[in-house]
Amino acid sequence: MINNYSLVDRLMTDGTLSRPEFFTLIEGRTPELAEYLFDKARQVRHAVYGKDIFLRGLIEFTNFCRNDCLYCGIRKSNLSAERYRLSQEEILACCRQGHELGFRTFVLQGGEDPHYTDDRMVGIVRAIRAAYPDCAITLSLGERDRESYRRLFRAGAERYLLRHETRNEGHYAYLHPAGMSLRDRLGCLEDLRSIGYQVGCGFMVGSPGQTTDCLVDDLLFIKEFRPHMVGIGPFIPHKDTPFAGREAGSLELTVFLLGILRLLDPKLLLPATTALGTISPTGREMGVMAGANVIMPNLSPVGVRNKYLLYDNKICTGDEAAECRFCIQRRMLSIGYDIAVTRGDYAGLSGEERRAV
User: Fold this and answer.
1) Cα–Cα distance measured from residue 72 to residue 68, given in angstroms and rounded to the nearest whole number
2) CA pair distance 269, 134, nearest whole angstrom
3) Closest listed residue to residue 289, CA positions, set 314, 315, 256
4) Distance of alpha carbon 260 from alpha carbon 17, whole angstroms
5) DSSP symbols for 188-201
6) According to a count of CB atoms within 10 Å of the terminal CB, is the N or C end of the chain lower?
7) Gyration radius from the chain CA atoms
8) Residues with Cβ < 8 Å from 34, sequence gap 6 or more?
9) CA dihedral over 89, 92, 98, 100, signed as positive or negative
10) E-strand stretches of 88-188
11) 108: which strand partners?
12) 304 burial class (0-12, 13-18, 19+ CB within 10 angstroms)?
């Protein structure tokens, strides 16, 4: 019989397990095993990043989307969504406030909105780069073609977040409409890496149709692809989607997987996501104690935050940016961590990559 504690030790030493071993570790988890895993995860993250928590200032600049993903509250078929777009001037105002509060990474996130053409997005990125040369610019705009990614990189964007959502093809087809394909999504991730971005992928935990085999597929893909960041969070249903009324993902399983990911690559940038904080009042603290080292407070104008609802009951939709930032700092201090006023780059960047950013 496999000893699950020895699997944690192996993962910490070797950075990987076989498919059956990952399956056994996930299926055999207990509260005692989880605490053992989290202790090891904290050891390796402290060795690489210390006790710094990196802030990313999230600017949700459009909730228009051409896609119809079955789990998403801003899917194009949701006629109840109140749509909005931020202008370049509004985006820069968010950056200005964020910079004053100590943010050194801005994350521009939106639906796949055709209004934001390459020319428009290049102009926005160049304006942020000119105004804040000490900051990293992260984009999360979904699937675009390779030339679009290249132009945005040349304009000054260094990071790109594109969740793969699931590595299992059947599961991907279940979560997405016809016309979207896992092959296209993975191709975009490969394009982003080859262009030179720091790349983030990720998946929902507990999404409809997900099995332990799906989760193992995700872990093996992440080990092979070697992203710089992995964003995971529990699935939370939205009332105006086909998955309304489905059971939410598990907080316990999500933080267990965060611990596994930290051991899978000690240098990963791992967010304690807003979804974690939504499903539990102490969810983000639990994520940090499981090995996470990134938090992404919202810099969007308060007036639009309750319109960018990918899922129901999202937290922090009414907080001012300053209120949110210092609340997070107090909460991190309460568990022995502190906010770093830095870009917070991936620790494994080569010398060439560091010169590029």
Assistant:
1) 8
2) 19
3) 256
4) 10
5) HHHHHHHHT-EEEE
6) N
7) 19
8) 252, 255, 256, 259
9) negative
10) 105-110, 136-140, 159-161
11) 59, 139
12) buried
CA distance 318 to 316: 5
Quote the tokens at residue 139.
């984009």
Tokens at 125, concatenated: 């990125």
Phi-psi region of 65 (alpha: psi -120 to 50; beta: other; left: phi over 0): beta
Strands 229-234 and 198-205: parallel
pLDDT at 356: 52
Straight-line distance from the first to the last Cα atom of the chain, in angstroms, rounded to the nearest whole number = 48
What pLDDT sits at residue 319?
A: 80
CATH of domain 4-356: 3.20.20.70
Query: Which pair of tokens denotes residue 92?
Result: 């820069």
- Burial-class residue 6 by CB neighbours within 10 Å (0-12, 13-18, 19+): exposed
Q: Which residues pair with 2 in a beta bridge?
A: none
Low-confidence ranges of the chain (pLDDT < 70): 1-2, 350-357
97-125 per-position pLDDT tens digit: 999 999 999 999 999 999 999 999 999 99
- C-alpha dihedral sign at 192, 171, 261, 248: positive
Do 157 and 137 meet the contact criterion of CB atoms below 8 Å apart? Answer: yes
Question: For residue 269, which of 205, 352, 347 has the smallest C-alpha distance?
Answer: 347
Query: What number of CA atoms fall less than 13 Å from residue 351's CA on the CB side?
Result: 0
Residues sharing a CB contact under 8 Å with residue 341, sequence separation 6 or more, in sequence order = 102, 104
Taking alpha carbons only, the member of 158, 164, 167, 177 closest to residue 65 is 177
